[in-house]
Amino acid sequence: MSLTDRLWGVIFNPVATMRQLTVQKPLGEGIFLYAAVLSIVMVINQGIDMLRPIEEVLSVPTNFIWLLLAMGIIFSLFLLLISAGFLSLISEIIYKRGNSLGLLVGFCFSILPGAFGPLLQYGSVLMGLSWLGVFFSIISMTWVVVLQIIAVKTALSLSTRQALFLYFSPLLLLAVIAITFTLLMVSSIPQLG
What we know:
By secondary structure, the chain is mostly helical. The chain has one domain. It contains eight helices and no strands. Helix 4 (62-95) crosses helix 5, helix 6 (116-126) runs antiparallel to helix 7 and helix 7 (130-155) crosses helix 8. It starts with a helix and ends in a 5-residue tail after the last helix.
């Protein structure tokens, strides 16, 4: 399967394509695609920022924009590695199934629709319809999340319910920790009266 077939499949036949990607694990193509999409998104977002009044735009020298772009891609890839490893580890603990490399490849390819949101947002800002650009960005982000859930489901051979639970488990864990911390703080405050 060629790269263009994989890209086409991620958009129009995501379940079968993600299943094939998580088995074949083309990591080089996945990281290249991830970096390319992030580069496009960052450049388009820079263009959107330049359309705002100059007082609102963060003035960063041109030399540093590319440095920030490279740092953003590296940091984002690092977070992607941690996410894939963490979800694979939780899956091994709970469901006795793990495939961290397949999950990483699935996450890399699932970012593809993320390039459409900023492109459509830029076009709608140029037409004076900023609200429509926000709508396109929300749809694009939702599409990426759905593709990531499909990647979790296919890479780890889980049911949809199990994949949803696993995908959102870090948020659930953070919520439990925050609620516990808040309750401990409130209970340690001396009672007035």
